[in-house]
């Protein structure tokens, strides 16, 4: 019988069965030993993890179902509004929004659909996530990953109840309540300009980079404001490197071509310099080893430290990080650029009062903001507009001297005496010993508190912590030179601070909060019975108050810095993880989140693309 079950050259089924049973016994023995050693059976352990996995899967499924239900309800509401919109639009106030940046988009998201006849005018038909723009210049992130089509964003929050026009507003007639728009695209049709009337106008056109009338800046320097700017910088970087690599190129010309000068030590300039250094060390040095040692970056800063609007500890940490590695970033502080030529620029040293010529291959200019031409033209026609930084508004974003016109973001400022209004309160809190005067120690303690409450005063108080001496803030305020400040001297100092500062920093966070505030305000003023120029204070609306949540800056080498009011300063590689997590969550859609996350992973695993496209 056994022979009939044997294959030629094989093993009998009985032998195979015996060995199988033996193996099972060994496995069972191992499981028994593991149970005796740990007191837990493998089955129970697998069961526990199975329960956790099923729980997470159920929670995720509920979140998806809930999100889908909310989205369906929102779309149903929009459809019901759209069906009767043609009949209702005649009685709605016409709201015109200029711009497609942070302020305009946060306003649209906050504005309830169907309350206004909404029209958006902007020459840029996408929303740009500007904090990641420096990453685009070196290919860490691709340009389209941080751009979201404005029509999709509008449709998500307003369906088909809002209109968008790709045009540029060239003039505003406040008296007639109309704007003149011009088609600035490459395609010109039979109609290239049009007038648009409004009941309420929101100006959120941002700002342009200021050149301080420095000769040659507009012709030879590169700005970092828009996607075309970042793409032009990326192309110029690769052009310089490939040109420097040509046979016979002199060492002197190679050093010039491979030298990048960044003018401006603020967050934009610092982050670009950090991204460029990472690009040089992680990618270009491997591809161009013969010229890698000649790659150089310099940052020109008009004040004593870079990131001077942050805590001084952050500035010093960033400078120390820039000094590391063989391709260190050279910081030229207390200096300003007075002229830019095609291949060189002139730097003026404030301390030595001397001028120094510097050769460069690429010059990046990120030295502050100036109002757009539209804002300048509008301000000239309004007597109340006397601030050169932007349109002066009240605490409700209303432009002074212009009925039914609002402004927010980088094109807006206000002259509210933020510190002067609290002079008496601040003085009493600082006067610890109650002698009616502030000593240097009491004054410095107050400045520490003021910088946390009003971070935009950091620049002015940069020298407030210095010892008493000629030219210091404390010395200038101490009129009678008794080494202490009375209330009158303290009040005059606060007036000077308020007069010299634009009210809020020109950041995306400020514009976003202003847009949310104005959207909520317009929701309350949308009733047809409400007068167009009603004072919001009379309706019980609270004024706008900026809440400082913190500031990030990437400093290179997978490290970042963070300043928050509660926890103070943070820095290091784990802060970079917070930086990326915060920006990832702040992106406008899941599409952009997926694209940016993919770009980060691609750059880390495969390196940045060095193609010149």
Question: What do you see in this structure?
Answer:
- 41% of the residues lie in helices and 18% in strands.
Secondary-structure topology with pairs:
Blueprint: H1 13-38, H2 42-83, H3 85-88, E1 93-98, H4 102-110, E2 116-121, E3 126-128, H5 133-136, E4 147-149, H6 150-158, E5 162-165, E6 168-173, E7 178-182, E8 193-197, E9 200-203, E10 207-209, H7 217-220, H8 227-244, H9 251-257, E11 259-263, H10 267-287, E12 296-300, H11 312-322, E13 329-332, E14 335-340, E15 344-349, E16 354-359, E17 362-365, E18 369-371, H12 373-380, E19 391-392, E20 405-407, E21 412-413, H13 423-430, H14 440-453, H15 473-477, H16 487-500, H17 508-524, E22 551-556, E23 559-564, E24 568-572, H18 573-586, H19 590-606
Parallel strand pairs: 1-2, 1-9, 2-5, 9-20, 11-12, 11-17, 12-13, 19-21
Antiparallel strand pairs: 3-4, 6-7, 7-8, 10-18, 14-15, 15-16, 22-23, 23-24
Helix pairs in contact: 4-17, 8-9
Summarize the structure.
The chain has 613 residues and is an alpha/beta fold. The chain is 41% helix and 18% strand. The strands form 8 sheets. It has a 5-stranded parallel β-sheet with strand order 5-2-1-9-20, with helices on one face. The chain has a 4-stranded parallel β-sheet with strand order 13-12-11-17.
């Amino acid at each position: 019988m056994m022979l009939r079950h044997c294959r030629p050259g094989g093993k009998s089924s009985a032998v195979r069965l015996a060995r199988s049973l033996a193996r099972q016994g060994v496995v069972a023995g191992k499981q028994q030993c593991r149970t005796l050693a740990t007191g837990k059976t493998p089955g129970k352990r697998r069961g526990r993890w199975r329960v956790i996995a099923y729980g997470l899967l159920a929670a995720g499924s509920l979140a998806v179902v809930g999100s889908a239900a909310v989205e369906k309800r929102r779309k149903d509401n929009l459809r019901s509004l759209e069906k009767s919109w043609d009949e209702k639009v005649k009685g709605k106030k016409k709201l015109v929004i200029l711009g497609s940046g942070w302020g305009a988009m946060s306003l649209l998201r906050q504005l309830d659909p169907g309350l206004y006849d909404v029209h958006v005018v902007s020459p840029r038909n996408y929303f740009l996530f500007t904090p990641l723009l420096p990453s685009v210049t070196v290919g860490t992130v691709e340009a389209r990953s941080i751009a979201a089509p404005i029509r999709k964003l509008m449709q998500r929050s307003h369906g088909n109840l809002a209109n968008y026009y790709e045009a540029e507003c060239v003039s505003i007639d406040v008296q007639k309540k109309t704007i003149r728009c011009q088609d600035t695209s490459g395609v010109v049709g039979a109609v290239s300009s049009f007038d648009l009337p409004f009941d309420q106008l929101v100006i959120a056109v941002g700002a342009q980079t200021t050149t301080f009338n420095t000769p040659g800046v507009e012709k030879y320097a590169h700005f970092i404001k828009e996607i075309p700017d970042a793409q032009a910088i990326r192309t110029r970087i690769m052009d310089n490197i490939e040109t420097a690599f040509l046979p016979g190129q002199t060492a002197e010309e190679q050093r010039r071509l491979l030298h990048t000068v960044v003018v401006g030590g603020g967050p934009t300039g610092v982050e670009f310099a950090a991204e460029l250094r990472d690009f040089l060390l992680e990618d270009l040095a491997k591809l161009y080893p013969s010229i890698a040692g000649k790659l150089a970056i310099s940052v020109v800063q008009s004040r004593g430290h870079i990131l001077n609007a942050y805590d001084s500890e952050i500035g010093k940490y960033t400078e120390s990080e820039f000094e590391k590695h063989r391709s260190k970033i050279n910081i030229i502080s207390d200096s300003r650029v007075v002229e830019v030529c095609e291949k060189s620029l002139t730097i003026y040293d404030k301390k030595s009062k001397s001028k120094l010529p510097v050769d460069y291959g690429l010059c990046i200019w990120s030295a502050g903001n100036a109002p757009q031409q539209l804002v300048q033209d509008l301000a000239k026609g309004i007597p109340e507009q006397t601030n050169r930084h932007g349109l002066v508004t009240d605490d409700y974003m209303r432009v002074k001297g212009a009925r039914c016109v609002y402004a927010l973001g980088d094109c807006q400022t206000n002259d509210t005496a933020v510190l002067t209004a609290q002079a008496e309160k601040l003085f009493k809190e600082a006067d610890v010993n109650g002698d009616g005067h502030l000593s240097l120690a009491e004054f410095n303690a107050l400045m520490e508190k003021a910088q946390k409450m009003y971070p935009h005063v950091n620049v002015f108080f940069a020298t407030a912590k210095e010892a008493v001496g000629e030219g210091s803030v404390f010395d200038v305020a101490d009129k009678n030179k008794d080494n202490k400040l009375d209330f009158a001297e303290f009040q005059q100092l606060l007036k000077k601070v308020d007069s010299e500062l634009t009210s809020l920093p020109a950041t995306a966070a400020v514009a976003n909060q202003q847009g949310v505030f104005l959207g909520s305000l317009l929701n309350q003023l949308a009733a047809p019975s409400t007068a167009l120029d009603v004072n919001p204070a009379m309706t019980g609306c609270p004024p706008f108050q900026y809440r400082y949540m913190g500031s990030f800056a990437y400093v290179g080498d997978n490290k970042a810095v963070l300043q928050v009011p509660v926890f103070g300063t943070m820095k290091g590689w784990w802060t970079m993880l917070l930086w990326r997590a915060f920006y990832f969550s702040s992106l406008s859609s899941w599409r952009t989140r997926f694209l940016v996350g993919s770009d980060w992973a691609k750059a880390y695993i495969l390196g940045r693309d060095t193609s010149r496209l």
